[in-house]
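Work Package 3 (structural annotation) set out to generate three-dimensional models for the target panel prioritized at the project kickoff. During this period the team completed the workflow that converts sequence records into discrete structure tokens, so that structures can be stored uniformly alongside our sequence database. As a representative example, we reproduce one entry of 546 residues exactly as it appears in the project archive.
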Amino acid sequence: MTIVDVLEQNARSYSDEVALVEINPEEKEVKRISWMEADLVEPNPMHSYRREITWQVFDEKANRFANLLLKRGIKKGNKVAILLMNCIEWLPIYFGVLKTGALAVPLNFRYAADEIEYCVNLAEADVLVFGPAFVERVQTIVDSIAPNRMLFYVGEGCPTYAESYNELTANCPSVSPHIRLDQKDDAAIYFSSGTTGFPKAILHNHESLIHSARVEQNHHSQNKDDIFLCIPPLYHTGAKMHWFGSLISGSKAVLLKGTKPKTILEAVSREKCTIVWLLVPWAQDILEALDSGELKKEDYCLDQWRLMHIGAQPVPKSLIKHWKEYFPNHEYDTNYGLSESIGPGCVHLGVENIDKVGAIGKPGFGWECKIVDEQRNPVKQGDVGELAVRGPGVMTCYYNDEKATKEVLDDKGWLYTGDMAMYDEDGFIFLVDRKKDVIISGGENIYPVQIEDFLRAGLPAIHDVAVIGIPDKRLGETTLAVIELKEGMSLTEEEVNEYALKLPRYKRPHKVVFDEIPRNPTGKIEKPRLRQKYCAERLVEAQNLG
């Protein structure tokens, strides 16, 4: 079975039930559209722009796109790049690609034009599907990419250099093309975060995708009555694989554009959402809005909300403790994963282990884990080493990059994550830091996450914090704490330094600055950007002193 089979099964079993809802608070509706032909619903003044689609229409739309691609010569092994903001068309297009046997290639919506061109070429994409937000970016590279591939535009006002997806698919059959798929067939290419240059192309097969769906349902017990609120971008494995829990249970999901606390709570309330996956900054923003009185919990219908889970980064204990003060009945889980392991779930905490908040958990459903030293030998309990994972969701390879593949994937199927971790006495895994983020100061290994958690836990004025290494002539590197304050609150460098006296001397920040913390769309701190900024400043200071 593949996820394509699951979609088609849902279309048969739940044909008239809603599969997807799209809400865009920033675009006020003229009509509230269900996205079924000639089916318009009277506008609701209480809602922002809203569209919905049933399982049957979802499958029909996927079939129409699949048949268009097949008509244009796309077949097994070809690649179709998808460059769209979250919208109700996104997933039918993705499944339409898979139904042909071709590979779906989701692209980060933050990519600049040169990055789009690079990724399209690296993946050897035969088709680029893009939306209104990308017209200018695609136009700047159209001369170099258009001669070798088809361009389909999703939206109104199709540019002259592309073809209209809406018009073309309207005239295509809505029946399945019935292309035979095997779990070992290539299915998708995702891209790494690209924090050390241009991203790598990560190849997954159909086994990876269906396993991620089974992992998600096993961890979070989705059933037909659940409603999942999906906020992160669908190009990323995290959002997609969490949504696979809705797919495999045949339950509804809501695609929300916007991350403001009020927007999130309104969506949960109006759509009766039961499961919400948040990133740390969004959870913090909700708590701050409740603390300040900007939002009042009693103004929303939230009793049905049963599970809040977080992924993409270590989660501070203080955050979950605070969350439970407002939402004592919520189950909580955290999920660890990376695009090379088809997103979240290769390690997870488990809702029954709330007392272990701070850990990323134990091996997920169908996964194995180990922590190893630099020679890739297992370390003792309590020692720090590199986390490795193995299971049906491990990537096939970095596409067209044999050297990079061999660096992280061994011949026994172990994927070496680049994340430093340790086991506690109960076998729970604690993430210490990214291998490349470890600071070596005077011969001592310093793990920034430990310092970040310490500062965040004891200084309530901190909204966000990132610790990086900056060049030091004597020690090699020293620690710099970049702190973003909560709105309306104050904190001085002297106060931070006084509180940091509780840390061992070598772990104390050598310098403190107050600045915004940049995060990518999946919530991870973009430390390379901070290093680029502050290491350059440090070099200028050194030159001036010299």
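The radius of gyration is 24 Å.
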